[in-house]
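Figure 6 in text form: structure in, sequence out.
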């Protein structure tokens, strides 16, 4: 009798009939990989449930769909800059010179079975993937899920977002149609603006002067192998860390830093996740089937001397386009060199904008000095400054997106493109501040509402007339679990420098960074940023007497 079978018997099985094929395969694998032990330790792991935890799954499934559809496209796409004359099924382009890359994209769209559908699913999946990542990241941001011990996983995720955007850029540059060539031209302009090395970098990338014949064949391995390979590794690491740290959960009764309330991984979570994968696949296939995206045949092949109006990058790069479009065309000339600030400043701001978000968890950890682990999520309203900063970042992103589509906005809304540009220039500075202040106020209002609810109960909708004629609404006390949810959050005093002179009256040295930290801590956690939650005494005083109507 082999080890696996005896393991089965010691597990208390009383069944005597011979093992089925599935069991035999499982035993075989267990004998070599130790699967039973692994499964026993992990398969019943509890996962908390909340709709917002599905956002990460949307990223995962759209990434898988991207890989599956990408493999199919790779079978037919030819990344070649060789010039050919088109004689394929799309008659309007008959006799037009183009690269083999563009020709093979037309072939995929018109001659390969299912080719157009797969191309469209691939493109829609890319849009959903990046959207999913951004929304998932904002969920993690607003709930503080990035706090210890998840800072590394935040960085893994952030890198995925950055690489996802770059992978998208390399992908839509491949077909070599007029739109994609315009995108590469844009990237070339940005590279050329880099002081001193810009021209060299451009020549190096394009194998000579733009556009050359090499760029498609160079972007191809980057798009289909290098970036997806790195991303796949990062996704696996990301998920292993989610498993290892265990998922965070929203505050509620029975949940604390040590106890997770939810459903077991197998079968409940797996069944849900499996179903959800097919749902995401179904929706993407439906979109790919009915909604045209990137109809490259309508744009024609790339020619450096042409550009269409309405040329847009995919939405996630719209903000970098917006930065460039609204920036004044500043230029410095000295010693025979030109510094193209009108392009270089926005080009540098683009990664900085993303970097600000990536580094935020470390800034917050430094300000709080909190070294504890956090497995219970914050309710965004209880962290008004953080929530406000997130809203400000999103507002800036949205404003720049408008800037990136200024021609589309102008033609669709019959507005002057110059007014839109000025609107975006002003909003670039104003919108984030307004978004921050409004969001912070809303959060404070919601905190006040929570406090009132705890102390005075829920409005029941029942109106009562008192003996002296006054009408009052009856308030019902909250249930214990609601009281817990509304009051479980911590309200720690902010970091302070302490007395500036010690007990002997000697001045204590205070470093500038301590001052900055204390100042930021006051802004984030001081009295201006929270409504004190009710104390037990306040609650008892109000609820013991006849204070409830
Ligand atoms: C390929 C892209 C990504 C995939 C496939 C992915 C997948 C997932 C999944 C399935 C989860 C668990 C469910 C959930 O909390 O939604 C998760 C959690 C997490 N993700 Fe991502 N994610 C991606 C990108 C990102 C990005 C862009 C960030 C942030 C910069 C991020 C940060 C996190 C963090 C910190 C957690 C732990 C959250 C918690 O335990 O509450 N992820 N991710």
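Output sequence:
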């Amino acid at each position: 009798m082999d080890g696996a079978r005896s393991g089965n018997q010691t597990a208390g099985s009383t069944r005597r009939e011979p093992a089925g094929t599935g069991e035999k395969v499982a035993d075989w694998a267990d004998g070599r990989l130790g699967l039973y032990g692994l499964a026993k330790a992990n398969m019943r792991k509890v996962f908390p449930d909340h709709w917002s935890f599905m956002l990460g799954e949307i990223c995962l499934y759209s990434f898988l769909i991207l890989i599956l559809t990408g493999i199919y496209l790779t079978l037919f796409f030819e990344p070649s800059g060789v010039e050919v004359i088109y004689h394929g099924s799309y008659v309007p382009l008959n006799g037009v010179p183009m690269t083999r890359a563009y020709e093979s994209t037309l072939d995929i769209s018109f001659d390969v079975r299912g080719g157009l559908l797969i191309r469209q699913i691939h493109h829609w999946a890319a849009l959903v993937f990046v959207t999913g990542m951004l929304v998932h990241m904002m969920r993690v941001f607003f709930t503080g899920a990035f706090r210890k011990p998840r800072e590394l996983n935040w960085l893994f995720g952030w890198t995925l977002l950055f690489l996802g955007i770059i992978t998208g850029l390399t992908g839509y540059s491949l077909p070599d149609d007029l739109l994609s060539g315009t995108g590469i031209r844009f990237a070339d302009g940005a590279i050329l603006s880099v002081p001193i090395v810009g021209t060299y970098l451009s020549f190096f990338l394009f194998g000579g002067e733009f556009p050359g014949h090499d760029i498609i064949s160079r972007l191809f391995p980057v798009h289909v192998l290098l970036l997806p390979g790195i991303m796949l590794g990062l996704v696996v690491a990301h998920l292993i860390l989610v498993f290892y740290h265990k998922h965070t959960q929203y505050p509620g009764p029975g949940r604390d830093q040590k106890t997770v309330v939810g459903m077991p991984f197998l079968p409940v979570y797996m069944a849900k996740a499996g179903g959800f994968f097919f749902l995401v696949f179904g929706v993407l296939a439906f979109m790919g089937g009915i909604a045209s995206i990137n109809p490259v045949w309508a744009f024609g092949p790339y020619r450096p001397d042409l550009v269409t109006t309405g040329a847009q990058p995919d939405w996630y790069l719209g903000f970098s386009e917006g930065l460039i479009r609204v920036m004044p065309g500043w230029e410095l000339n000295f010693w025979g060199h030109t510094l193209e600030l009108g392009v270089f400043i926005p080009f540098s701001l683009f990664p900085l904008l993303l970097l600000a978000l990536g580094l935020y968890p470390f800034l917050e950890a430094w300000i709080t000095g909190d070294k504890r682990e956090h497995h219970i999520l914050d309710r965004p309203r209880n962290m008004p400054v953080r929530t406000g900063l997130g809203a400000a970042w999103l507002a800036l992103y949205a404003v720049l997106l408008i800037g990136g589509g200024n021609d589309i906005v102008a033609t669709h809304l019959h507005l002057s493109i110059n007014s839109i540009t000025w609107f975006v220039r002003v909003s670039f500075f104003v919108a984030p501040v307004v978004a921050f202040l409004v969001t912070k106020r809303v959060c404070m209002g919601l905190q006040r509402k929570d406090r009132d609810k705890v102390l005075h109960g829920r409005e029941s909708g029942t109106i009562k007339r008192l003996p002296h004629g006054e009408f009052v609404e009856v308030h019902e006390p909250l249930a214990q679990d609601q009281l817990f949810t509304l009051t479980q959050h911590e309200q720690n005093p902010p970091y302070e420098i302490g007395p500036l002179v010690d007990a002997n009256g000697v001045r204590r040295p205070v470093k500038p960074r301590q001052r900055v930290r204390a100042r930021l801590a006051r802004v984030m956690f001081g009295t201006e940023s929270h409504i004190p939650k009710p104390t037990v005494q306040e609650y008892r005083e109000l609820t013991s007497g006849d204070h409830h109507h």
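Caption detail: Residues 85 and 97 are 4 Å apart (CA to CA).
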